[in-house]
Request: fold
Amino acid sequence: MIELKKVNLFFNPGKHVLKDIELTIQAGCSTALLGANGSGKTSLLWVIAGIYKYKGEIIFRNQGRLNGGSKELRDKTGVVFQNPDEQLFMPTVREELALTLLQKHDRVDEALIGEIMERFGIVELADRAPHKLSEGEKKKVALSAALVAKPELLILDEPTSDLDLPGKKEFLKLINSLEQTRLVATHDLEFARNCCDRGVILESGRVVAEGKFEELIDNRRLLESCGLI
Reply:
């Protein structure tokens, strides 16, 4: 679905954040991005989402894009931030979902908004202010907003942060019900084990390992060397 070739990211001349990233994200798979703090996980998410400009090539549907983002890929990508308060800012939950549709499709489909709210159990939150919700409710609203425009790729940054155990289980159930290709940056290895088919380990801005998630997670020496356990 998406192929990265020699992708590099610089924040300034002295800070080389991502280094020659070579990676293929397979359609229909759920891929975990793993790595210690500062390894480049979130930066890689934002490169793919079109938030950061990069050097190199990202191929989406056989269309190459150099040193920048692909509008087609951005339009087909939904993003869930680690902190929902950085993502949710409209007066009501309903308006939050409507904003996504305006940004992606230039129109609001009330029936689709209702369908998504029903699916994710937030109908009763429709007219409430997002910033007044619980952390679990905010996560569900952020996920609903990311999915209302029916993206092909869903990006999640540390989706279980600030959730208690019941909240993690509920969010995991929602994630596993999705059909979208998913890319999940997380420190939560147990969550990733239960929702990801593949894993990619980053260290100092480089891909040091990738493959089937269970094979990576069973390599204790690798996890220790990358600061994951």
The longest strand covers residues 2-12.
